[in-house]
Design a protein that fits this description.
The complex is a heterodimer of chains A (230) and B (770). With 230 residues, chain A is an alpha/beta fold. In chain A, 25% of the residues lie in helices and 24% in strands. Helices cover 35% and strands 23% of the residues of chain B. Chain B is built from 28 helices and 27 strands. The chains are: A alpha/beta (230), B alpha+beta (770). At the A-B interface, helix 1 and strand 6 of A face helix 9 and helix 11 of B.
């Protein structure tokens, strides 16, 4: 087992994420049920999109109490690579692995569109040189409006933790934030869906570069060449 | 010893001792002669619960009592036994039909209406409409892979219509998005005839292996009957009979008859059921508790299995206290299923549902004989022959008479409207583009997750939705289209229904897909009125004849009658939905013109009719005229030509002419990023051709295709050989202007970005302040 794709009740992009990682990128990936523990050989975790626990209470609020979330926190604290997409991002915020919260879109409606994104100079993996200056990725959410205390927002910006910003803000997020990482550089959260931009018939192939950037440490340590079938 | 102690005290349950009066019978929507039939079947007076059961099972919604004879006209299998798309499960046999799509894979698909609930409570009505159709699909053992819907509303002028429209769209969005099934398209019309009677028809398609097809039959005496999913409450009581009458002022008080949906619960139920069905040999029969809930699922499974069934209501998970047997049996609480498993393997089912934290209660068993027996609090409350509910429902042939407006429409003359002046063409085009039926539907589809499951190949708004199944490891592409122009069906029901079929199939062909099978949703008014029944009958005949002609069978569907209120009935709306298969990945074709410098070819000949068009509507407020001619032979030739040219790689974009006619179809091909322009030139039109007919007429069997200059000659040669009229009418440009010349004279030069704005604003501008 290399990549664990967590499956909460109500997750619905788990299959997509597993497909993109396993079938398109050719990296071994498996879904792990929320009541099970994280397998010891896990090298990276994707917390996929969907409606974990039906978004009851708040998005991601109940998933943080799932047994697997304790394992996830330990995994992240030990430097494990974690990527939360959409509802996964919301869960990471609720679990305290990333700051802030995602609330209802300003337009009060769900939005499913291709979105142009600006790549920020965030770290050695996520920057305009490795990813290109702009990306086009789909969004699909009703609650992607990123909110955080002003003092923390300043800290986020000072440390270059934002790695993706909307060029046209679809949800009212502060500072147009679409993707955010922690200071250690091992926990990433983003509202756009990279797993939906990996095939030739998708609106773009930009999801591949995002996923490759995320998996880079894991791959370089083993000197494995990524081969894309996309 | 006191003698009275041996006589049991009178049962306090009103379901058992309430006197069945003629008023009570009529309140249950049963006719006196239908009640007589019940007395004969039972040989005694039914109790209230039994009366309720007959009432829902013999409603139009469950028994098709006014339409069964008409539905028999539809072909249910393919004549050509070698062709792809053979029917594996026929219409009406199970919860949904299934067709073969090759390599051992099948597709289960069906459309179903939730019109009446949506009229009262648009959000919940539409949401539970999606929930119901998705359950029909996974009950078959199929993994749902796409959703679409067919919606009809009144004009977007009134606040009430806007409220319904907003509520329905957000209900569909709420439920479908949470399930994670892509909603890849649909069709929406706005017409005064739907004011107060919106139509919400939801479709779902799923994939499965042939050997995994599940049956809704209770077999094997002693096999346990399980209830899985949500608890039962009082919501949706008698929804099936509610859906089988006209809406009145008092209908708002019927709110309890509208169900409340929980898409999260449905997602769990979907995953748990598919996991359970993947265990070999465990499931004997399975049926969703949709219309008529526990009643329908028990009697239908018993009837299909030629057996009896017994259940104990005390074992049914309930989320309200003090429910009586009538309420439990007739509740339409959502997200529930009935499952019959192999005796002795109960714990295998229970383990799955425990994993998903769902109820799984053993409520009864399959029994000898043919009775459906229900116990409550230790007393038998229902004891009926199961088949009497499913097979003995009355069937009616209603009197039909041709409505006057149909006769008048045939006599309509083109010269009753003045010809269109050259300088009015652009203005007329903008009006059409700004009509909500024709304008962009992005306001709707941006609220639907159309990309989940990573298979969406064509952005919504093209001629058909296309889904790639590679996520499931299947090298196949499904296409889906819905169609029905109510104006045509109102003015000429027989040909209107044929046009709905032809257009749907043409949309698939334009997308590169071969049509395989149909699911239809017959939305009509009160069948007891001869005018309304005539429209229903003629539409059914027209659709059936078209299906036979194309050898495309109907594998399921739904009938929704009584769509009328004090203001009158809706226009006849036989929604046709068709599933198709795109043979090769490079055959996926979009309506968007790929680049400037492409030749624009019109297939099918110049449009020359104006009757029943949207042009008559927006210019003169007319719903009148002779419906365009439909030539099914020509249509077959056109569509097979399209597919062979797409397969040969000569067609880069294709778009069929529909509402609004030629110029609307053309500019829709130019819209997008980057905006394109076109130069069109029409000559040798002859003295009788009118510009309004040419540009805005809705003649059938017309398609615009974009072809590269190098392929032009070969395509035209092929067209001649296949007897498909084809003519070059112009080319695309990078100027973002639409220039039109007629007989060498430039009659207008429009800015395409302005046209696009009219088209994009059609819905948002009307929804702004609401």
């Amino acid at each position: 087992m290399k990549v664990a794709v967590l499956q909460f009740p109500g997750s619905n992009c788990d299959w997509d994420a597993e497909h993109a990682v396993r079938d398109v990128l050719g990296i071994s990936a498996h879904r792990v049920w929320h009541k099970d523990s994280l397998p010891g050989e896990t090298e990276a975790v994707i917390v996929p999109g969907g409606f974990s626990f039906g978004d009851y209470l708040r998005c991601g609020a109940i998933a943080r109490f799932s047994p697997i979330t304790n394992d996830l926190k330990k995994f992240a604290e030990n430097g494990g690579q974690v990527l939360g997409i959409c509802n996964g991002f919301q869960i990471l915020c609720e679990a305290g692995l990333l700051p802030g919260a995602l609330i209802r879109n300003e337009c009060m409606e769900f939005r499913c569109l291709n979105q142009s994104l600006k790549v920020e100079q965030s770290n050695e993996r996520f920057n305009p040189t490795t990813l290109g200056a702009t990306l086009s990725l789909p969004i699909a959410h009703g609650e992607g409006n990123y909110r955080v205390k002003d003092s923390i927002l300043t800290e986020i910006e000072d440390h270059g933790l934002v790695f993706l910003r909307y060029l046209e803000n679809p949800n009212g997020s502060m500072n147009d934030i679409a993707g955010l990482r922690n200071r250690e550089g091992n926990v990433y959260g983003m509202m756009p869906h990279p797993e939906r931009a990996v095939e030739s018939y998708h609106p773009s192939l930009d999801g591949l570069s995002v996923l490759k950037a995320f998996f880079a440490p894991l791959l370089s340590s083993r000197a494995v060449e990524l081969s894309s079938k996309g | 010893m006191n003698m009275s102690s041996t006589v049991p005290p009178p049962n306090p349950d009103p379901c058992l001792n309430l006197e069945i009066t003629p008023e009570l019978v009529s309140e249950h929507g049963l006719l006196p002669e239908e009640y007589e039939k019940i007395l004969k079947i039972l040989g005694r007076v039914p109790n209230l619960t039994e009366l309720g059961i007959f009432s829902v099972m013999w409603s139009e919604h469950c028994a098709y009592k006014n339409t069964r004879r008409l539905l028999r006209l539809f072909p249910t299998e393919k004549r050509d036994k070698e062709a792809i798309g053979q029917v594996l499960v026929k219409a009406g046999d199970e919860n949904a039909g299934v067709i073969d799509v090759g390599e051992g894979w099948g597709v289960a698909f069906k459309i179903e209406s939730h019109n009446h609930p949506s009229a009262i409570e648009p959000f919940e009505g539409a949401a539970t409409g999606v929930g119901g159709i998705v359950r029909d699909i996974f009950t078959m053992g199929a993994r749902p892979v796409l959703l679409t819907n067919s919606l009809r509303f009144g004009s977007l002028g009134s606040n009430q219509v806007k409220r319904l429209f907003r509520g329905v769209v957000s209900g569909i969005s709420h439920y479908g998005n949470c399930l994670g099934i892509p909603n890849v398209g649909g069709d929406v019309y706005f017409d005064d005839c739907y004011e107060g009677n919106p139509l919400v028809n939801a479709l779902c398609a799923g994939i499965l292996r042939h050997e995994d097809i599940q049956k809704g039959a209770a077999t094997g005496v002693g096999n346990p009957v399980y209830y899985v999913g949500s608890g039962t409450g009082r919501d949706g009581l008698g929804g099936a009979s509610f859906a089988s009458r006209e809406l009145t002022e008092e209908s708002a008080e019927d709110r309890p008859a509208v169900q409340k949906g929980d898409p999260f619960m449905e997602k769990l139920l979907l995953e748990a059921c598919l996991e359970m069905m993947s265990i070999p040999g465990l499931v004997v029969g399975i049926q969703d508790m949709g219309a008529a809930g526990l009643t329908c699922s028990t009697c239908e499974t018993a009837s299909r299995g030629d057996s009896g069934i017994e259940i104990d209501l005390d074992l049914v998970p309930q989320r309200e206290t003090g429910m009586n047997s009538y309420e439990i049996m007739l509740s339409e609480s959502q997200e529930r299923m009935l499952v019959i498993v192999e005796s002795g393997r109960e714990n295998e089912l229970e383990r799955v549902f425990e994993k998903w934290d769902l109820h799984a209660a053993r409520i009864g068993q399959v029994r000898e004989g043919d009775r459906m027996v229900v116990r409550h609090k230790g007393v038998v409350v229902v004891d009926l022959p199961a088949k009497s509910l499913t097979d003995n429902a009355p069937i009616y042939d209603q009197p039909a008479s041709e409505p006057d407006h149909v006769v008048r429409a045939r006599q309509w003359r083109l010269d009753s409207v003045p010809p269109l002046a050259y300088d009015k063409v652009e203005e007329s085009l903008k009006k059409l583009l700004n009509h909500p039926t024709i304008g962009s539907k992005k306001w709707i589809w941006r609220q639907y997750d159309h990309m989940v499951m990573s298979g969406c190949m064509v952005e919504p708004g093209s001629d058909a939705g296309v889904v790639n199944l590679s996520i499931a490891g299947i090298d196949k592409r499904l296409a889906i289209a819905n169609d029905c122009n109510n104006r045509f069906c109102y003015l000429d029901p027989y040909h209107g229904a044929q046009i709905a079929f032809a257009e749907c199939s043409r949309n698939l062909a334009c997308s590169g897909a071969k049509a395989l099978a149909v699911t239809d949703n017959l939305n009509f008014g009160n069948p007891n009125k001869p005018d309304a029944y005539y429209l229903l009958k003629e539409c059914a005949r027209g659709l059936a004849d078209a299906c036979v002609h194309f050898d495309v069978p109907v594998v399921g569907g739904n009938v929704s009658l009584y769509n009328e209120n004090n203001e009158g009935a809706i226009d006849p709306t036989p929604v046709v939905s068709m599933i198709g298969l795109i043979e090769k990945p490079n055959m996926v074709t979009r309506s968007r013109m790929p680049e400037p410098g492409m030749e624009i070819i019109l297939l099918g000949g110049l449009p020359h009719e104006l009757g029943a068009s949207y042009h008559l509507q927006v210019e003169y407020g007319l719903k009148d005229g002779k419906v365009p001619e439909i030539d099914l032979d020509a249509e077959v030739r056109l569509q097979s030509f399209l597919l062979s040219e797409i397969s040969a790689g000569r067609i880069s974009a294709a778009h069929d002419l529909a509402e609004g006619g030629l110029l609307v179809a053309l500019v829709e091909m130019l819209f997008g990023e980057p905006l394109l322009g076109a130069d069109l030139n029409f000559s040798n039109l002859g003295s009788t051709m009118r510009l309004d007919c040419l540009f805005f007429g809705e003649s059938q069997g017309r398609v615009l295709v974009a072809v590269s200059t190098t392929d032009l000659e070969s395509l035209l040669i092929q067209a001649r050989e296949k007897e498909v009229p084809a003519q070059r009418i112009g080319n695309s440009t990078n100027s973002s202007n639409l220039k039109v010349r007629v007989e060498s004279k430039e009659i207008f030069n429009a800015d395409v970005s302005e046209l696009q704005r009219s088209w994009e604003d059609a819905i948002p501008s009307r929804m702004k302040d609401n």
